[in-house]
Known about the structure:
By secondary structure, this protein is an alpha/beta fold.
Amino acid sequence: MNERIGDVGSKSDGDGDFRFPFIPYESQILFMKSLYKLMNEGGVGFFESPTGTGKSLSVICCALKYLRDARSDSNRQDLEKNKNTEEEPDWITNFASNKLAENLQDERMRLKQKIQAKQRSKSQSGQKYTRIGEDDLVIVSSSDSESDSEDSFNIGRRTVRWKKQKSESDVLDRPTVIYCSRTHSQIVQFIHEMIRVEDSKNYSVVSVGGRRQMCVNEKVSALRSAAAVNERCSELLESQRSHIKSEDQKVNLHPDVPASKRRKKAPKSSQKGCPYYSKKRITVLSDTIRSEVHDIEELVSIGKKTKACPYFASRKAMESGYDFIVAPYAAVLHAPTRDSIGLVLNSKSVLVFDEAHNVVDAVNDAYSAELRSIDLNYAIKAATLYLERYEMRLSAQNLFLVRQFLDVLAKISKYIGSMSLFPDSKQVLKVSELIFDCQLENYNLFELIRFIHESNICRKLLGFLDVYTDNCTEVVDASQEQPSRGCFHACEGFIQSLTAPVEDGRVVVTHESIKFLMLNPAAHFKSILDSVRAVVFVGGTLSPKQYIAERLIRDHSSECKEQKSRDSIVEFACGHIIPKSNLLTLVLSKGPTGKRLDLSFSQRQDPELIDEIGRCILNVCRVSPAGVVVFFPSYTFEETVHKQWESSRILASLANVKRIFREKRGASSDEMLKEYKNSIFSSDATTQKQHGAVLFAVIGGKLSEGINFSDDLGRCVMVVGMPFPNPRDPELIQVIDHIKTTIGSGYSAQYMEDLCMKAVNQTIGRAIRHAKDYASIILLDHRYERASIQNKLPSWIRDDLISTHQFGQCIRNLSTFFKSHTQSKL
Ligand code: SF4
């Protein structure tokens, strides 16, 4: 089914039962109706609705209706079961229905209390909580407890058995909506919208964030990277659990331990653990989370006041059951992370991905694994020291597996070392080839990875390092790049990736690192598609949608090729709420001297062509008010252009018209953006001749996504050339090869166009940001005239696009467009 809605800017009479907080636009009603149908019937859908059209609110109201109806369905079914066979008056049936709903609520409450009572009794009976994987709380047997008290880093003689945590949500199999997005700011914005909807109070809504956003321990949250925050938190909790202080005393007093091998006194902070990690206070905060909708900032503020960690409280809240989860991509896309936080996908779950043009990359990132040589070598040294210390205390099987772990790492390290003879090259090979070249074929990597998970050896090695820092510092040259404390997890991730099916990925080796490159995101997304009722891809600009469909959704295995057709995906695209007269999109294929604008890679170094581009931009700047933003396909090309315009004096002419700003490679853009804004809004910031400013930016750079060039900040957005990826990039070559063998060579050429147009669409989406905005978009390259390229533009841009074959026509259109808007303002 394909639905297409044009320019629908009118208000509707009502929204049916969606309980929209305002009178919705007609387009919002149609969006919600179509989305609700998908949620109810199940399937996969693309829902494209431009920025500023109230997309988030439509998703929220629709999702709440889905939950509401699912809840009353469940009530009805229960009622049916208990129905009296004789005819009953309506008031009796309604009373019974309401009573049943109350009973269900009571039941949920009883369940919550039961969970809490269960946890209390477990903690009283001496059982101990420990963590596996990311942050999961699992119960280990008292023998584990003894083992840990003997020595917190020792795996012990016991062979560890995996205990799968049983989530209460498994039991409930309740209808749930899981909304995820890429950035923290998008998640915060979504929660703010949700708070505006009255009905959200009737559901358990849990915001899940990373420790970077939710940590309230100032000493930890002040650390620079998310990885550093995660590692520091894990270390604190490890130390809190294992009572290092008392162990230090025991071991240091032992006469057999030589002075050189005695533990350094643990740092004070480690001894104390984290003051916010109190089970009692976390339980109270988790109840607060479940009682009403909070955004992450509110949770952090409450966590600080109540001295409870909001990160673990939100996880605890999930354990007690939830209706609506708001989470970052990584928490949902990566199966082990999903398991660790207790996120259950079931046949009544609806999964909504916002900003969905990023999902393919996010799945690939979640399952790719990079291991730096410096981290690998550091991990080897630490594991060697660990083995020296605990060799005698390990069971034969554990000793065997720790040695295997070390052997595998050493062989991979040797292989990376062999690349030092070719420092500028990248070697790409299949997993099976790497295993053969590294002589790993006799190791059972599946068993090894199982041992790594179950024994929690990475955490133990990390804690070991913390105490034995002196012994390990010799391995690091202080003047060089330092290893990360996440080195053990990086090793674990890489070994895990070697167990992937051979065709799903490739290994890329340089003299500094080894990386598993995931080529088949569909293989991992399949488990999500198979588990849930509906998957919804939402975005302001999802085009080209085929990119997501082919890479993520379609099953290209031979047995499924026949079964799955394109029609099984629902597509809904809604027009912009701006009037058509507020957007002018032009394709410019010739410059002022009539020179054809061919910016293909082989042509674009031509100085005459570069000057022709300069003359185009100069003329556009003369007729465009306020801010003009010009996007180039790469930093290198922008630098070449800038240099040429300096020598041909085009830059000087441009500076007479608008103040010039540039996005610089690797530099922060904050100050520059402030200045740019100032030049547009303050007449003091420009000379008398100048009006406004022009900003040169790069597609794929910091300014092409996430920055709004609304109103005067971007009255005209120009894209110079087409940002095709480098076809010689070794990683891209592997992806293309994979596409050729799985999807077919027909799609591989299209794939390059899809990548290019995905970047263009995100860039031009910066221009119109709200209902009263107006702007012009100019695509400068004759290749934008091709139908195959124009078909990959969002429909609200494509439908009114004008191809100008004469430069004068472009300038006339532009001039008329801006004059009409200036006059309408007067
Ligand atoms: S327990 Fe919570 S507050 Fe403490 S360090 Fe970890 S994330 Fe931060």
